[in-house]
Amino acid sequence: MSGADDDSPRVRYERPADGVARVVLARPDKLNAQDRRMLHELDDAYQRAVREARVIILAADGEDFSSGHDLNVERAFAMDGVQPRTLTGGFDAAGAEGWYAVEEEMFLGLCLRWRDIPRPVIAQVHGRVIGGGLELIWPCDLIVAADDTVFLDPTSAFGAAAAEYFVHPWELGHRRAKEMLFTGEPINAQEARALGMVNRVVPRDELAATTLELAQRIAARPTFGIRLAKRAVNRALDLQGMRAAVESTFDTHHLAHSHNRERHGTLIDPAGPEIIRAEARELRTSPGEPADGSAT
After folding, report:
1. Could you give the CA distance from residue 123 to residue 149 in angstroms, rounded to a whole number?
2. Are the C-beta atoms of 121 and 140 separated by less than 8 Å?
3. pTM of the model
4. Residue 72 dihedral angles phi and psi, to the nearest 5°
5. Distance CA 68, CA 32 (A)
6. Which residues contact 211 (CB under 8 A, 6 or more apart)?
7. 3-state SS class at 279
8. Phi, psi dihedral angles at 201 (to 5 degrees)
9. Cα 228 from chain centroid?
10. Which residues of the chain have pLDDT under 50?
11. What are the tens digits of pLDDT across the range 199-249?
């Protein structure tokens, strides 16, 4: 059981310092596997933080930052009676149209929305950041990683190109992006910093303090100047074609879903989950296995 029907809060909101909000993924028993409830609670917390804070930190409870999307996707992300956060709809449409609308809302739409938050957002990461976990941190402006962090996108095992928010060539460089996608092999924190994906790598026990110190330093500067600097860099990336690549690869992702439905009767290649769980178990630094349905 994936726990998708559990009504306990998935996200915690904190104010650790003046001008700083900390948004914490709070589903550690499922390794912060994402379902619709978590992503919408995260969106609620971001909306609150924009009103109350000058800088936002995204952190997580437990052993891992996020094991990705809940693998029981069609149940975990059901949109029955839910008010969408982006300008999409048609969730109950027949064929590929309905699921396309769900993912356009939950994955593509929210990632693009969070990338444009008019406050600097710092991802504070540790442990494993798998698949959909990358979709939470890559819209952030800065990333501070514990030295035990590993990043991986294993979605080729599902018979798909990449996770739905495709910014890999900009985050990793095109050759390292291909290697990650072709092999599913992880990138550790030190390599991620060398590639320019991570800003700082620190010991795990210094992670929270280092991230908060960075947030406070940014919060002391004029908010409008920071906002304009963020827009300038994001626009430069878009002029390089990043947003167009995100949107076009999202369509490719749905070609893979349609292919898998025709061939296997499911959204993903059924051999994929066990491949990914086996690889994830190899990365664990302490005993135990990931919860069923919690690593993509």
Report:
1. 12
2. yes
3. 0.91
4. -85, 60
5. 7
6. 57, 59, 122, 124, 144
7. helix
8. -120, 130
9. 24
10. 1-4, 285-296
11. 999 999 999 999 999 999 999 999 999 999 999 999 999 999 999 999 999
